[in-house]
Here is the input.
Amino acid sequence: ALLLFYPVLKKPCRGFFLGLLLIYFYVRHRRFSTSKQTLTWVPDSFFSSLLSGRISTLKDETGAIFIDRDPSLFAPILNFLRTKELHPRSIDVHLLMHEAEFYGITPLVRKLQLCDELDRSSCGTVLFNGYLPPPVYPVKRRNRHSVAGPQFMGGRSGPVERAPVRRSNTMPPNLGNSGILSKAAIEEKLPGSGLGADPGMVRIICGHHNWIALAYAQFVVCYRVKESSGWQLVFTSPRLDWVIDRVALNAKVMGGSLGDNDKMVAVASGTEIILWSICADGNGNEIGVFSLNVPVEALFFVGNQLIATSHTGKVGVWNAVTKHWQNQDVVPINSYDTAGSFLILGCNNGSIYYIDVQKFPLRMKDNDLLVTELYRDPSEDAITALSVYLTPKTSDSGNWIEIAYGTSSGTVRVIVQHPETVGSGPQLFQTFSVHRSPVTKIMLSEKHLISVCADNNHVRTWTVTRFRGMISTQPGSTPLTSFKILSLEDIDGHGGCSAGTEIGPYGERDDQQVFIQRVVPDTDKLYVRLSSNGKRVCEVRSVDGTSITAFMVHECEGSSRIGSRPRRYLFSGHGNGSIQMWDLTTAMEIAALGGPTEEELLELLDQCDLALTRTPDMSPAASLTHTSTPRTSTCRYILLTHEHHYILDRFMFS
Here is the structure.
């Protein structure tokens, strides 16, 4: 329009036209033009730096400035600079916010943040159940050495000789019934971590009854919940000199020399283990420091006994009655499970062994834990995963014992011990040869048999038929579903902990179990999926936008009211040290939605640098997790073809 008046006005308007000097942009094959005044009314933006010469420019033959960004998103940004108006319903708020942050258009970023927050609340969705702020950073623990001496067998007195393994075809007839972190703390470099672990983020969450324990890099805290008062912080350990890798919690200590109301919590790092007792008033006392002499790769309680195992073939046991710690050498251990007072071990030589840890010190013989062989795999493949299921009692002689296990070759087998056939040993019941990679997890429950192999967490599920609570040969196990829980792990050294991000399955064996899926390491989103068919139960997203660094599903006991039942919760630990809780009992009552959609998976992968991630550890069991080398680009290519073929074109360049 101004050009129409140019022949009439000519000289008087020449200065006016200089003020409206046009700037041309060439954005990915699209040409834009605007004025310098439009571009520079927002101070300290990308455009003001560009036009002032602080940012080098690339121009085409016509003098248009080239910008390598999305032209479809550049257009609404340019319209905002012209009109200062925004129409959020016609745009993708998240994508436009990313572009506005790149160009430094602060007023637009604030408007887009407001638009995004209108659909989200800091109080979360209906499933959001609670929030625990970061605890106060504790004082440093006094330097104390590991417990040593011949009476502890696991101190620094040297390795213990390997005890012979006693072979037996029988199983004992009755197994029983089954604050804010200070800035100085955040900036402190952790000694000996080697990974630059963030001291302010949650690394591991574990639960027992109405208690949970949270492990940060150098200390552990314990919470308990009561119906009237909610969650309360009851114990904070001193700050340790090393990074915590394993946590175990016992919130129901029965008998022993500890008080009736005392609880126990233990942590491990490397070869060292520290055990505390927690009194009813919340005060904690250090029971002792023990050493397994080899890296601790599993830490848990069997009754009052603290158990530590290593894949190298060593088991450590601390007894609450005798306060005795001892180490036992066995063959290399790949997997474990518990049944009553029994510890069941799956080993590298193809055998399943058991130890009755409740019989100490009555059954001790020359410091021998009486490790007994229960069963040997017909092919002698390494037992890489196992699950023990105890059915209701069928006679006075004991229980019908069922054990499902997986091997390094991908075979899944089920063995059964009859209470009436004492002396014959467990019998092979059924074999499945459907996995082509080592089985990493297995779960035998009332209704399902679930196995997971190392092929990017490939899950196979069968329906188990039972008669009077016992597994039945008619009609046997029916194939139910096959799906994957794609989960990329971080290998760039941000201090993550694999023990805090186990996919599951979680839940009681007489109920529907779930997997937890965190697709990429740096995300604020988790998917909860049914273990029986892979369908999505729900999706949870952190209410404060912080990344999720650890998670765990735990069932808390109900109130004392008649008819009150336990409720299932998902606990998520975050990079800022907080804990967020989600009501899965309510979520399970809602129809399943399925796993991440194709668009959601692409969106998540767009936020992830594939060069800094790896596929799930190909080791056959969680206890075999070692430092892995990054996968090659070819491996990432195969990973994506397995999950969604159409992703290839976008990520081949990675």
Q: What stands out?
A: Residues 2 and 17 are 9 Å apart (CA to CA). Residues 71-83 form the longest helix (13 residues). The chain is about 15% helix and 35% strand.
